[in-house]
Amino acid sequence: MQGMRARSSQGRAAPPRRKRSPLAQALQQAEAVCAAADLPLTAPRRRVLEILLSAVGPMKAYDLIAAYDGAGRAVSPITVYRALEFLEQMGFVHRLESVNAYVACRAGRRGHDAAFLICKRCGGAEEFEPDLASEQAAALAAGFKLERVMLEARGVCRNCR
Ligand SMILES: [Zn+2]
Ligand SMILES: [Zn+2]
Description:
The two termini are 20 Å apart. The strands form 2 sheets. A 4-stranded mixed beta sheet has the order 1-5-4-6, with no helix packed on it. Strands 2-3 form a two-stranded antiparallel ribbon. It has helices at residues 22-36, 43-54, 61-68, 77-89, 133-141, and strands at 7-8, 93-96, 101-104, 114-119, 125-129, 150-155. Strand 2 and strand 3 (101-104) form a beta hairpin. It contains 5 helices and 6 strands, in the order βααααββββαβ. The chain is globular, with a radius of gyration of 17 Å. The structure holds zinc ion (2 copies). One zinc ion binds next to loops.
């Protein structure tokens, strides 16, 4: 598969000045992005993002709805779906169509091209930034305006092999 020769998006964040958990940092960063866009990171949006950031792999919407309930109160599914829609638009989460699940973005940039290696055994998904030179050239040659590329590759991860 061409374009999968990718650079992992993990491990190139600058070290933080103060010791803060990666989760707290990611939430704070999301808050700053929302504030700059004048769009509130409401409690449901924040909570859904928090669950996805803490998750070990992609989560389906109904798992998010089940996990949301932390204070003994059930959340309405529509609240979670709306929060997911917002988070996806803001680039904080990606939707993996092939497994119909959501995963927190590890790159932290809005509207970027993404490639995922999805393990069919453990359900894990590793995010990469794809090298799309050949796809871009093909699109250009076809007169096609390429907007965004999401690659979802299925296989078996290192841990499950
Ligand atoms: Zn991403
Ligand atoms: Zn696996």
